[in-house]
Amino acid sequence: MMPKPWRKTETDDDHLLPDMLHSMGGSKSKISGEQCYEGAQTRQGSFWYVCRQGREVPISCVAPDGRTQFAIGQTFKTPNFLLQCSQPTPNGIQMAPVACITPAGQIVYPGNMFTPDQTFYFRCIQSENSLQTQLAGCVGPSQELVPDGGLLRRGQFLYKCQFTHNGIKLEAFACIFDNRQYYPDQDILTPAVWYRCETDGNGGIAIKLKGCIKQGQRQEVGKRFNDGVFAYICKLEDSRIYPQPVGCVERFYNGTMAEYDLGQKWLSEVTSFDYNRYVFECQKDGSWLRKNAVQCYYNTPEGAGYLRGGCMRKVGQRLVQCHGPTQQSPNVRMRIQEPYNDHSQLGGSLTAEGLAFC
């Protein structure tokens, strides 16, 4: 950010310059060629004189407003400086700044500092018979002075106090996260969330949410990815970022993978040692997902087909059984009994297990 520099010198008031410092080298008996009359008061520029015993004696100064008089030894406040009317020599008079005035109206004497906005420090400096306010530095978190080039922390951010030809500015320098320093465009990685320290081009700096971290990999907001078991979308919601599970992943023996959305079903892969397979479904389990076997698929020389859980079927000399699901497990499991010739061989055991011909 570039705050407007607050600076004012007595030389900025051009109408004060001719009479800001004024002295007289001797007595004067006449003004503009006229006789000085005892007790008569006259004004010359920013000063008033009185005629005493034929000589003009200085008695007061005229404030920059052109109307207010203040006597020798007194002071007058302008918006930026405290002026004093003084008599440095018996016949001389001067009006000079003796202190700086803050925007709040406080008097600051030469050599002291003040801050009008708790952001920058200014110093009241005296040079010969003039005063000026100069930028001294930035205000630190404990009200300490931070000089040009110094660093100061505000909240989660580190700024550099930098003087420029236009004044002074706080330049974004770094972000602070978990007591570590990160420079602009540097990534901040936590076990689950990806942040980045970024500037906005106008002197501002922020820690921005960039995405999720899953198994050490960075994923941008809105991107779909998987970890070999489930599929996710990196979701940003109410300033909270998290990997939202949206599907299941089937890994095949050749190393490839396929993603299936919630509610989608697929047939498991054929293996070299087993032609019997399962139908899997990607199901919701609370706030998570599960890949559950929901149907049995048999493939025998006598025929192939699907069985839902709780069913059994005679296929040739085989009795194909699809058990489950149960309260203990949401998955079905297949069992083939052979040889099988007569239903009576079942007795009551399979019926007791909840199986029926279907």
TrEMBL record:
Pfam families: Fn1_2 (PF23003)
Source domain of life: Eukaryota
InterPro entries: Mig-18-like, Mig18_Fn1
Residues of the Abnormal cell migration protein 18-like fibronectin type I domain: 98-166, 210-251
Official protein name in the record: Abnormal cell migration protein 18-like fibronectin type I domain-containing protein
